[in-house]
Amino acid sequence: MADPLNHRAVLLVLHDVAPSTWADYQPFVEAVDALGGVPMTWLVVPNFHGRDALEAHPAFCRRLGERLARGDELALHGFYHDDREPAPTTPRDWFMRRIYTHEGEFYHLSREAALARLRAGIELFQRYDWPLHGFVAPAWLMSEGTRQALRELPLHYTSDPQHLYCLPDFTSIDAPGLVWSARSAWRRSLSKVLSDQREQRWRQAPVIRLGLHPVDMRYRYSRNYWLQTLKRLLAEGRMPMTKIDWLAQQRGQLGHAA
């Protein structure tokens, strides 16, 4: 499908993975599996919105274990994926936590609160014997307390929409990503225009991330976009990789250059 010596890559990342979102993702995942040899990074939420605990769904947990056996990666994506902190008190916080998103779980956490959530997620991964390398904050929003907490934990990376950050020192690596807002028809149309422009701008970029959300899967227009974009990037010679495998490759190249 792609030349192993070609260093350009595409990373397929599924956000908000939980038992309740599997029905959204299943047809798309099956279509990707039919292509053959395309690993995915699954951003797993331990207890989505406090109503969807992984431990209550053993069949889904077995499915995640099977994905690991196929060569996929599981990463920690918050704990609740839900902002449970006291109401915002400043205009900026009100915008970020009530207009931009209601799901910025780690946007306002202290170091101690962030450590507690992160350790709970790490312990869950350990109970299932799932390797854990990365943490992605819901909506990519992290407080300074969260950043402090991440420096203390045995994780290898975190990310925002355009970068991966090596932990514990937050060394930045450019990793541009496409992401949609698919909740309405006009948002899907605008997302398509912007994504096409960005893909053209990033044609020579070493990596392009495709950041999918469950809502994208609920509309044929957006679901087809992601599948066709993946196929096109593979046809152009990009190597499909998980986030941790691509990051390990970059670290190896940096070490060799040094």
TrEMBL record:
- Pfam families recorded for this chain? DUF2334
GO terms for biological process? carbohydrate metabolic process
Report the protein name in the record: Deacetylase
Task: State the organism named in the record.
Answer: Pseudomonas fluorescens R124
